[in-house]
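Hi L., both proteins are below.
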Amino acid sequence: MKVWRYVPCCVALTATAFLSPQSHAQSTVTLLGQVDQWIGAKELPGGDRAWGIRGGGMQTSWWGLRGQEDLGNNVKAIFSVEGFFTANDGQAGSYKGDAFFSRNAYVGVLSDYGTLTAGRHTTPYFVSTVLFNPFVDSYNFSPVVLHTFLGLQGQGLVGDSGWNNSIQYQSPNFGGVHFTAIYAFGNAAGQTGQNKWGGTLSYDVGQFSFIGAYQQVKFNFVPNDLSSVAPGFSSQQAAQAGASYDFGFLKLTGQYQYMNDVISGGGAHSNGGQFGASVPIGAGRALASYAYTKMVGSMKTTRNTWSVGYDYNFSKRTDVYAAYLNDRITGLSSGNTFGVGIRTYF
């Protein structure tokens, strides 16, 4: 699947390889990540403008270690521990209170039959969201990321973008078809019905890519905590479809999303979508995206968000960018966020 640097294209390796006389196994460990910093003004709908230096303009900064050991017969033991951080203040996590290794922390097995891992995983639904919009996983300039993971006035996904206590399976590639499934336990006595599960099905051949994603969540962070979000809130179902086509001179992306909140006494659901474009210009790309979401039921809200930007590549590992976002929600004053930043991978 073609992505806009969701996975670093170039990393610096810190690796140890050895050959054991007994097992003849090879083991490697890789250090990788990215640092993203921007300066500008951030203004949420209905809020005040705040100027400053912040982390993660285009993508949240993170670092991590990934390793594998060859067990023979095309089977490898693998692990990954990866954590977000904010470079402007040196704090661990993508927000205050976030776990140290909140991006990924798992161990598992890779073989010809797929990859099976256990621990904490970035959810397949999050990956589906960020792969099919020009601004990737920007929590500042990506309209669909704001609508999906930073919903306001009742809108937005619950359950976080990373799931603790989860098992995930990723299939091999079958002629361009690939699927992922994930299940997360509540890990509390007497709460076997409290869980999260979901998955994706994708198709990627030539210049065309498609993905379908679904997840059901019955708790946010710990079992039965959805009632703290809204009284009587018991579960949420979310579905998404995304597609892209790269013409070379222009890459188009599109997404549709549906969310349903099960709330006693009257639920709510939302429909929305995103359209985006990326145009190569010089050593960089011009970016544009628009997202719309309408919630009906016990909560009624409409949100329109658009953004434009330019991302210039100094090298394969370092780029600079400038972007502007306009965000409008029913009953609130418009929010405007703009700034310039730099991102580098290692």
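That was the first. Here is the second:
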Amino acid sequence: MILISLFTDFKHGILLYKAWIPFDYSVSALFYLAYVHQIMTLTFIGLVHPTCDSFICGLLLHICCQIEILEYRLSNIANTRQSLRDCVRHHIRIFEYSYMINEKFAKIVPSEFIMITVVMCYNLIHMALTSSTIDSYIQNVMVIACTLAPLFYYCWFGTEVKLKSLQLSDNIYNIEWTTLNNNMKKGLLMMMNRANIPIQFTSANILSMNLESFVMVLKTSYSLFNVLVKSQ
């Protein structure tokens, strides 16, 4: 957006995006100041949003890593009560961590779903009903892609966490459990039963964060776009 604006808007004395300025920026020096300010704000936003999204995805990926560590510890479990107790505690800590992250997710993700649906509809309508230039068309496509990217990340890693948590039960069964005593086998059986309930992240405790939800958001946005276009 900055590069396109430098070759188009900047030459004609137009700012990068519309904004209220408390002074007359028709003067060259003031126009340069306002233009640089808008470039800095756009760059700052471009850095903050991917950082927040990457941080949330990193939290989800950490769950998958902890499950893999637990699987490795179980594959090397000794025939002692203490080793099993440590694995059970590790398993409980993973669920506690997941519940804590999910509690925060339930407050953030619903607004993301609503915002993405609105932005998608607005940009699609703007592209369909207006005679846009090439640069504005490229900007609209970039806005749609950047809007969908965070939601796709959340749904993708949410699906990975769910599948990884479900695989734990099968991985426990594949260890050398036949050489363990009965108490160890009972403890592993309890972990397997608990692992059959997957770790799922939800939006407002209603919509699960997985790839099916991502497809549903796309379908909802497209359906709303068709309704608005037909009414127009």
